[in-house]
DNA sequence: TCCGGGAAATTGGCATACCAAATACCAACA
DNA sequence: TGTTGGTATTTGGTATGCCAATTTCCCGGA
């Protein structure tokens, strides 16, 4: 019985440092297909043409060298995630969000990130906040030289994601990741214009200050207003549909 | 060409009373399985036992009288939704959220609902707000007689959902629906105790007042604090795991 | 009594086949 | 020429079968 106990101890690896996670379990075609499709959708300029953008199951299964079954499962997942929509006998189409929908997403983003800011003032370490400030500096410096809209947009989203991570809430991180995915897709439509960049940078600085001052109410308000301002901007200056 | 116009007029049924909607498209086994499984999970007392709660593909397909394929697709969707988790050779298990996860969910809920309150002060009609007040009255009256915890919890969530709908944002509605699903699942663990009911009712009244006064900041703050208080309550008084 | 190892059964992933619905195509007729 | 009716083809949904990875079970040996 002593030997049994030892074996048990060895393999359950609870208190000792040995952490074995049930090895990677080489990913299935299902997950490969999921990743491939999501990647494809990401790199696709969804709002480029106004055509329906259809996908074909059999075509995809051939390209990926797999049968329809795992592809269909991946499509089902992406459908659940709101990226695809499969209508019978009409094909699988990439979902194009309407302008009101995009605005609602940005408002939800404002809600989640402002809460993240509040939580961050209470939970983030000084070091973590300092890192955010240094991230901002890098961003700002690199931005001065080049003024490509896409780069600004990417760095901008990176800043916001870093802030949200400061909250320590993986739920907030996950929920906003989904939102950013959709918002990113319309970056080409110049959501972020250069004249907004200056204002935006100033806002970011203020936000960092509020975090450093551990001022929950102020940080929350600044983040909320900053993002809601983007919503209003999109509402009046971006033309979808 | 005159005949074409007539035919066109007849079948497109624009201005005349003929409204044909592209008939219901009878739902597939996939969606039936999805609905059935979700229903089953809903009615399941997830946090009752501490055992893994496994499901079996072949068993489910037999019960539903369908093959494994549509069941697997439904499972893939529910997995994406975070309700199930399928690990190879170990079965499909209902995801049990840890206490920190539940708390993060409630915090996200607080974020989204407080934003909903803010938007509602700007967008909801007086009538809609009045309806919320009457909903509250019904709830309160019916609650006085019976003090079953579940009923209170249900009515409580109904109130919050009604408030969120006032924002007019279907995005906020959808995102919180997911959260409520998980929170509802642990209602049995007496998240909502009766001593909280009185305080809660008072809070709700205050919130309604703020909405009626169109006071965005106050409504937002009241909702946020109300829900964050629940998070703190769960943190210190509810025992999961 | 306990351990080890190998056979047998289970199970998840995937490929393939089939069917019915829906579309596209086409030819004949008005 | 345009419409109609019917046929061929496509396509999505589902069922089924196979295979390999595991797990389970069981029996012989220590």
UniProtKB/TrEMBL annotation, chains A, B:
It comes from the Bacteria. Keywords: DNA-binding, Transcription, Transcription regulation. Residues 27-97 form the HTH gntR-type domain. The keyword Lipoprotein does not apply. The keyword GTP-binding does not apply. Signal peptide: none annotated. GO terms for molecular function: DNA binding; DNA-binding transcription factor activity. InterPro entries: GntR_C, TF_FadR/GntR_C, Tscrpt_reg_HTH_GntR, WH-like_DNA-bd_sf, WH_DNA-bd_sf. This is Transcriptional regulator, GntR family. It comes from Ancylobacter novellus (strain ATCC 8093 / DSM 506 / JCM 20403 / CCM 1077 / IAM 12100 / NBRC 12443 / NCIMB 10456) (Starkeya novella).
């Amino acid at each position: 019985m002593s030997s049994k106990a030892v074996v048990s101890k060895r393999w359950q690896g609870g208190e000792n440092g040995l952490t074995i996670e049930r090895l990677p379990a080489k990913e299935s075609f299902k997950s490969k297909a999921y990743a491939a499709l999501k990647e494809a959708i990401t790199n696709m300029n969804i709002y480029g043409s106004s055509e329906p953008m259809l996908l074909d199951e059999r075509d995809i299964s051939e390209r990926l060298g797999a049968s329809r079954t795992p592809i269909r499962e991946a499509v089902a997942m992406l459908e659940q995630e709101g990226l695809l929509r499969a209508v019978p006998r009409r094909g699988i189409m990439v979902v194009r969000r309407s302008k009101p929908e995009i605005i609602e997403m940005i408002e939800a983003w404002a809600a989640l990130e402002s809460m993240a800011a509040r939580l961050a003032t209470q939970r983030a370490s000084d070091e973590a906040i300092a890192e955010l400030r240094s991230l901002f500096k890098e961003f700002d410096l690199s931005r001065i030289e080049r003024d490509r809209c896409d780069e600004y947009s990417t760095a901008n989203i990176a800043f916001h994601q870093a802030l949200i991570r400061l909250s320590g809430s993986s739920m907030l991180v996950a929920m906003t990741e989904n939102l950013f995915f959709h918002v990113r897709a319309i970056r080409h439509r110049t959501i972020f214009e250069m004249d907004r960049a200056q204002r935006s940078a100033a806002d970011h600085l203020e936000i960092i200050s509020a975090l450093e001052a551990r001022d929950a109410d102020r940080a929350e308000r600044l983040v909320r207003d900053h993002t809601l301002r983007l919503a209003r901007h999109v509402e009046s200056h971006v033309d979808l549909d």
